């Protein structure tokens, strides 16, 4: 029912306003199974703090038993003989006990491990929350770029078809060659193949978007296109060193990896505690009546308070082996943290450089597009004057459409680089996606 509802909603709303990336994100918060699963994963992980703390708190218990006893006792009769006493009686006992660890390093290590596991769950969720912003924009721009490629491929087909018809007409008039016809036909078929590929890529991207918001697919007309005149964003801070420090401090992947290292460290301590004593204070109140044959028809009320010391002596080497095993796992976590740090900083630098170079690339591609458009016009005029041949016109058309495609790709790449830069720095927020959303205009008209 939900997919049908959203499909009807989009079809009704599409005539009024197209969805921007932020609209998709708001719906993904309620429908993306990956994100919803991450919420439950975090909630489950946070319970580790309570589980670990429980080992440090008092343990209170109550036991009660009641039974029916049939026994046969042989008792001395005072004359050197004995007599038999058949006893049928009820017995019961109840114990109320309280234990409080005074020194239990294993319980303490478990508590610190639980705290680290809870922090790991929190940081892991923060990463998946920011990753959702990246996924939304990635699928969104992929769908739009596929549509740009479709539009470009169709424009190429139209231009090459006109060129084909013109060449065929000239050939029939004895002014052209068969080669000119074949060249135009070849370019047309290549454009057709590009259109088919772009349609497949768009279908996949739209289905990925649909999966985020709980529908089978999204219609491309429901998406707001990129404003062709959008301006590049200011980069703040402008120097890489600050971004570097931000990533080391705020990146949730690195933060969760550090907590994973803490988990491994306290697992070592937990195993090492197997060599240490445990000291526990305890108190109990016990009531017994006819608890055994020796206490037949007797009642006892006993209150006890004391301290218990438990000292492990030998466990077959298992404790030492477990400690060594946990130590190796901790060393592995250290290397994994170092690897994640290097990987994150490499990606951070890549996205920072892409933001800086992206501005220059956008300007260069825009100028190249203007030149390519002028080249097509100039080449066609030169062909009429006999200075250029048919192949020159086809090449000029090809260059024009390639430049349009590259410019579209550069625009989307810039937006993704700006978003990913904030993601790897660990400070990507929904307000950043709202800023990116402003670069997308009203519904497209084709």
Q: What features would you highlight for this structure?
A:
446 residues, alpha+beta, Outer membrane efflux proteins (OEP), 2 domains, T1SS_OMP_TolC, TolC-like, cell outer membrane, transmembrane, Peptidase
Could you outline the blueprint of secondary structure elements for this entry?
Layout: H1 2-13, H2 21-31, H3 33-54, E1 59-76, E2 82-103, H4 105-172, H5 178-213, H6 240-250, H7 252-272, E3 278-289, E4 299-310, H8 318-384, H9 390-425, H10 430-437
Antiparallel strand pairs: 1-2, 2-3, 3-4
Instruction: Give the structural class.
Output: alpha+beta
Whole-number total of structural domains: 2
Rg over CA atoms? 38 Å
Uncertain spans: 1-15
Mean pLDDT: 88
- Please give the CATH architecture of the largest domain: Up-down Bundle
Multimerization status: single chain
Keywords: Cell outer membrane, Membrane, Signal, Transmembrane, Transmembrane beta strand, Transport
Pfam family, one: OEP
Family: Belongs to the outer membrane factor (OMF) (TC 1.B.17) family.
Signal peptide: 1-17
Overall description:
There is one protein chain. The chain has 446 residues and is of the alpha+beta class. It has 2 domains: 348 residues, Up-down Bundle (Outer membrane efflux proteins (OEP)); 75 residues, no CATH class. Strands 1-2-3-4 form a 4-stranded antiparallel sheet, with no helix packed on it. Helix 4 runs antiparallel to helix 9 and helix 7 packs antiparallel against helix 8. It is found in: Cell outer membrane. Its main location: membrane. InterPro entries: OMP_efflux (IPR003423), T1SS_OMP_TolC (IPR010130), TolC-like (IPR051906). Belongs to the outer membrane factor (OMF) (TC 1.B.17) family.
């Amino acid at each position: 029912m939900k997919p049908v509802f959203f499909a009807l909603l989009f079809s009704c709303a599409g005539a009024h306003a197209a969805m921007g990336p932020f609209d998709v994100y708001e719906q993904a918060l309620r429908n993306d199974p990956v994100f919803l699963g991450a919420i439950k994963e975090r909630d489950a992980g946070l319970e580790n703090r309570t589980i670990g703390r429980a080992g440090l708190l008092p343990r209170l218990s109550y036991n009660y038993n009641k039974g029916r006893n049939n026994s046969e006792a042989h008792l001395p009769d005072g004359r050197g003989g004995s007599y038999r006493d058949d006893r049928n009686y009820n017995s019961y006992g109840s114990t109320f006990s309280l234990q409080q660890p005074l020194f239990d390093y294993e319980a303490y290590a478990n508590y610190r491990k639980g705290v680290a596991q809870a922090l790991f769950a929190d940081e892991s969720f923060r990463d998946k929350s920011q990753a959702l912003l990246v996924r939304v924009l990635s699928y969104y721009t992929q769908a739009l770029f596929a549509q740009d490629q479709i539009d470009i491929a169709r424009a190429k087909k139209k231009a090459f078809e006109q060129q084909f018809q013109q060449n065929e007409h000239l050939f029939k008039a004895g002014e052209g060659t068969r080669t000119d016809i074949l060249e135009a036909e070849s370019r047309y078929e290549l454009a057709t193949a590009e259109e088919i590929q772009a349609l497949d890529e768009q279908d996949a991207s739209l289905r990925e978007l649909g999966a985020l918001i709980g529908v089978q697919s999204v219609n491309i007309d429901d998406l707001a296109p990129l404003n062709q005149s959008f301006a590049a964003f200011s980069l703040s801070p402008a120097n890489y060193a600050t971004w570097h420090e931000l990533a080391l401090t705020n990146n949730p992947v690195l933060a969760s990896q550090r907590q994973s290292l803490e988990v491994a460290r306290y697992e070592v301590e937990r195993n090492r505690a197997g060599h240490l004593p445990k000291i526990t204070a305890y108190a109990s109140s016990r009531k017994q009546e006819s608890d055994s044959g020796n206490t037949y028809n007797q009642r006892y009320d006993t209150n006890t308070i004391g301290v218990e010391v438990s000292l492990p002596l030998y466990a077959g080497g298992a404790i030492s082996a477990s400690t060594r095993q946990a130590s190796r796992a901790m060393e592995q976590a250290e290397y994994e943290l170092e690897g994640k740090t290097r990987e994150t900083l490499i990606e951070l630098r890549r996205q920072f450089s892409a933001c800086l170079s992206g501005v220059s690339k956008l300007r260069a591609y825009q100028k190249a597009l203007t030149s390519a458009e002028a080249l097509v016009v100039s080449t066609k005029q030169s062909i009429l004057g006999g200075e250029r041949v048919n192949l020159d016109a086809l090449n000029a058309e090809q260059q024009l459409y390639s430049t349009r495609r590259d410019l579209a790709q550069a625009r989307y790449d810039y937006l993704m680089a700006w978003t990913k830069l904030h993601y790897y720095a660990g400070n990507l927020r929904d307000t950043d996606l709202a800023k990116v959303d402003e670069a997308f205009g009203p519904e497209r008209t084709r």
